[in-house]
Design goal:
- The protein has 16 helices and 27 strands.
């Protein structure tokens, strides 16, 4: 494998350096010590906790969706989950101009999509152009990675030059994500809705054999695959013949199906499930998600959340440790910033997030919110009540929010839970039809703050420009110096909390139950599953 060439090492360092991306807990199923060498063949049966929202990697946002769609698409680069270093994949080498405006990728020769068409620089152009066309409403992550995109120019058959009108230091890491995975012309030519039907064509190690929206997906091994990522542990084809994903929303049923050998691996294994999983020879794998931790994003134009004092009072009102101890378990962490602790550029801001209900009450008292007859505070005839829009993309969301609801009532705040299906959640989020919205966003780069909070991005806070925050978010795109970029990301983290634009709760971790026959089930850098090296023993 040819090592990447860099014309500007500083830019490369800025997007990969200092990233401690190691998972908390175990990050691979099975040691292989007793199972012998990897053996090809077999079907892995996987139980998802939530249905995939779309088969298109570019439009995939939830972890459960990406467990499926990541397998059918390759990216230009890959990110080592242990070091954060970017490694070759479809691009065998690349160069970046000193101003981080032009990125040139030299593609591996001989790569084909699953429909037999070759990977070319034109494929890269059409893929990126299509993501821009999908836009923030359909592809919020991919569109944000291509901010200030000008064009992709095929210099020759295997050389693609990607240009931006302004510096875009985060883009190199973005090319390792599934959202910017390269797709065949037959897929990129389709409109957004048709790209969710399960017939997407990529160059990845698996292909869609069957896809039933909200029910199941079956992937089949791609014959002849030999251009895997430099992060992968072996060369050639994937070991598994098939992966069968089924949706099993109820946790006890997922665990029972794993224990009875009806499933080989499951999502969202809860702490109470671990003894049952381990008793049948399985184990629980965990990996902490980098990016923005779970939290509330307030619409600052609606209801009591218009008041900055209310937003500030919410920060110390939440007992985050109780959320971990009561709902989640030891593989999870409390949120200590507006970035998760495994994200490059993270800064511990736990002193800004102490659990101190007396302090929270004092802030509200000083702001003129006085307790009413039922304990809920009132100011100028307005109750201190707001709703939170959320979906069950993570199995613990409802239980967490019900506990937060109890905690906030203790300081005189009424929280109303607005649980909706994923489609309605997305539509209302795009329409900004909510008092607050609850979610997390995963990415192994501090630029995720720009995606979530920039006034020029989706602006889910519905806010006006805040110079301290927006200058930092814009500035980190423009610097190739790793230390300077990290400093700007730290500034942005603090500004998000100072402005009450995010009320963090917990950091998401993936907790995967794997049966004893499952070997080398691994997490990639963003804590999503990668099945390329996975194999089954004893079958």
């Amino acid at each position: 494998m040819i090592r990447p060439r860099y014309r500007i090492a500083a830019v490369a360092a800025a997007v990969t350096a200092a990233a401690s991306l190691a998972a908390c807990g175990s990050d691979s199923a099975g040691t292989g010590a007793d199972a012998g060498p990897p053996k090809p063949g077999g079907t892995l049966r996987y139980g998802l906790s939530v249905a995939p929202t779309c088969s298109d990697p570019a439009q995939s946002g939830t972890n459960q969706t990406l467990y499926v769609s990541r397998q059918i698409v390759d990216s230009l680069t890959d990110q080592d989950p242990k070091t954060g270093e970017l490694k070759p994949w479809l691009a065998q080498s690349w160069e970046v101009t000193p101003d981080a405006k032009v990125f040139t990728f030299h593609l591996v020769d001989g790569v084909t999509f699953s429909d037999g068409t070759p990977l070319t620089a034109e494929s890269v152009r059409k893929t990126f152009d299509s993501v821009v066309k999908l836009g923030a409403a359909k592809a919020p992550l991919g569109a944000s990675y291509l901010t200030n995109y000008v064009a992709t120019t095929p210099v020759d058959k295997l050389t693609a030059r990607v240009e931006f009108s302004k510096p875009n230091a985060q883009f190199l890491q973005a090319t390792s994500t599934a959202q910017l995975g390269i797709l065949a012309d037959v897929t990129t030519a389709k409109p957004a809705e048709q790209r969710c039907a399960g017939d997407n064509v990529g160059s990845g190690p698996f292909t869609y054999a069957n896809y039933r929206q909200d029910a199941s997906a079956t992937l089949a091994k791609r014959a002849g695959y030999h251009w895997g990522s430099a992060v992968f542990a072996h060369r050639g084809e994937a070991y598994l013949d098939k992966i069968e994903f089924t949706v099993v929303p109820e946790s006890g049923l997922r665990t029972g199906s794993l224990g009875s050998n009806q499933l080989d691996a499951i999502s969202d294994a809860l702490p109470q499930d671990a003894p049952q999983i381990e008793a049948t020879g399985g184990r629980v794998l965990s990996a902490a998600n980098p990016g923005v931790p779970f939290g509330f994003q307030p619409n600052v134009t609606r209801g009591p959340l218009r008041d900055p004092a209310v937003r500030q009072a919410l920060l110390p009102a939440i007992d985050r440790k109780q959320l971990i101890d009561t709902v989640l378990g030891p593989q999870f962490k409390t949120a200590t910033s507006s970035l998760a602790s495994t994200t490059p550029g993270y800064q511990d801001l736990s002193t800004t997030l102490p659990f101190d209900q007396a302090r929270a009450r004092g802030i509200l008292d000083q702001a003129g919110w006085t307790p009413g007859g039922d304990g809920i505070r009132v100011k100028n005839g307005e109750r201190l009540a707001f709703s939170v829009l959320f979906s069950q993309v993570f199995a613990g969301n409802q239980a967490i929010l019900e506990l937060v609801q109890q905690q906030l009532r203790q300081i005189g705040v009424e929280l109303r839970l607005d649980l909706v299906a994923v489609a309605e959640y997305t539509a209302r989020q795009n329409a900004k039809d909510y008092d607050s919205v609850y979610y997390n966003s995963t990415r192994a780069d501090g630029d995720i703050l720009r995606t979530a909070f920039s006034v020029d991005s989706r602006n889910l806070n519905v806010r006006e420009r805040i110079p301290t925050l927006d200058d930092a978010l814009d500035g980190q795109l423009s610097t190739g110096d790793a230390a300077a970029r990290s400093a700007l990301i730290r500034t942005a983290q603090q500004a998000v909390l100072d402005s009450g634009l995010w009320i963090p709760t917990v950091e998401l971790s993936q907790a995967i139950g794997a049966g004893g026959s499952v070997q080398d089930l691994k997490f990639e850098a963003s804590a999503r599953l990668q099945f390329f090296d996975t194999w089954l023993s004893g079958r």
